[in-house]
Amino acid sequence: MLATTGERVLLAGCGDVGLRVARLLRAQGHTVFGLRRRPPASADESGIHWLAGDLVDAATLAGLPERITRVVYLPAPDLRDSAMYRAVFLDGLRGLLERLDCAALARVLFVSSSAVYGDHAGGWVDEDTPPDPPGFNGAVLLEAECWLAAQARPCTVLRLAGLYGPGRLQLLDRLRTGGVAVPRDRVHWANRIHVEDAAAAIAHLLFLPDARPLYLGVDDTPLPLQVLYDHLASLAGVPPPPQGAPPTGVGSKRLRNARLRESGWVPQWSDARGGYASLLEGA
C-alpha cells in the first residue's frame, strides 16, 4: 500500500522519468519538488514546485525546502565520462543529502542501472548476483550505491534495465537507416523496461513499507537481441539487421524481476515487443 497522507518529495534530477514519477506522486496527494539546473521559467500545469540547482555545484543547493520526507535521486549527466559521473552520482549525492534534514527523511531512493553487472553468458541475474561493472558508468553507480547504503538513513536502490518509450525511439530510427547490426552466430540477451513502468516502480518503492535495500527494474521477458531487433524491424517495415558484433560494455544476461514483482509492482508492458508495437501505433 502507498502512503495515504501527503508527504514532501524531492526529485533530484527531474527530467523525462522524473516528470512521469511526479505525475504519479501528485495523483496520490504528495507535494513534489523538482530540482533542475534550468527549471521552467514560470509555473506549469504539472503542479511541481520547481527548484533551480546544479548537483555538481553545492553552492546552488542552499535554501532547499524544509521537511523533505522522501528523495528520489535520478539525475542525467551532461557528459558520458568518468569525471562527470563521479561529480553527479557521488559528489552530488553527498552534497544534496548534507543540505537536507536527515532526521526528517523517511527514505532515499537511488535510481541506478543494470550496468553494474558484467557478462553472465546468458545466465540469470538477480539482486543476489555479485556486481562486476565492465565500464566506468557501472563502477561509479556501484560506488554511489555502497556509499548510500553506509549512511544512517533508510535507502533503496533500483537498478533499471534499458529504458524505452515515448521520446526514446532511437533504436527504431537506427533500424530504419540501416545503422544496426545484431549477433546471429550466438545468443546475446537484451533486457528492457518501458519508461512508464520504470516510473511506476519508483513511485511504488518510494512508499513501500519495509522496502528491501535493492531491486531490479526490468520487464518480464528477456529477449535474444536478434529476436527483439528482427521484431522491431518487422514493425518498422524494414529488412532485418545484418550479422554483427554484440553491443560493447553490456554483456549477455537475463535480468530477473521476481523481487520487484513480489513487492506488488506489476508492469503494464511485460514484453518489449508489445511495448514497442504500442508506441508505433500511437506515432
Outline the structure in words.
The chain is an alpha/beta fold and 283 residues long. The chain has a single domain (8-282), classed as 3-Layer(aba) Sandwich (Rossmann fold). It is 32% helix and 18% strand. The chain is built from 8 helices and 13 strands. It has helices spanning 16-27, 82-98, 136-149, 170-176, 195-206, 225-236, 258-262, 272-282, and strands at residues 8-12, 31-36, 49-52, 70-73, 107-113, 124-125, 155-160, 162-164, 189-190, 192-194, 214-217, 223-224, 254-255. Strands 3-2-1-4-5-7-11 form a 7-stranded parallel beta sheet, with helices on both faces. Strand 4, helix 2 (82-98) and strand 5 form a beta-alpha-beta unit. Helix 1 packs across helix 5 (195-206), helix 2 runs parallel beside helix 3 and helix 6 (225-236) packs parallel to helix 8 (272-282). It is globular. The two termini are 34 Å apart. The relative contact order is 0.14. The model has no long low-confidence stretch (mean pLDDT 93).
Task: Tell me the structural class.
Answer: alpha/beta
Instruction: Provide the spatial order of strands within the biggest beta sheet.
Output: 3-2-1-4-5-7-11
Distance between the termini: 34 Å
Radius of gyration: 19 Å
Distinct helical segment count: 8
CATH topology: Rossmann fold
What gross morphology would you assign?
Answer: globular
Integer tally of domains: 1
Helix content: 25-40%
The largest sheet, given as strand count, sense and whether it forms a barrel, is:
7 strands, parallel
What's the number of extended β-strand segments?
13
CATH class: Alpha Beta
Strand content: 15-25%
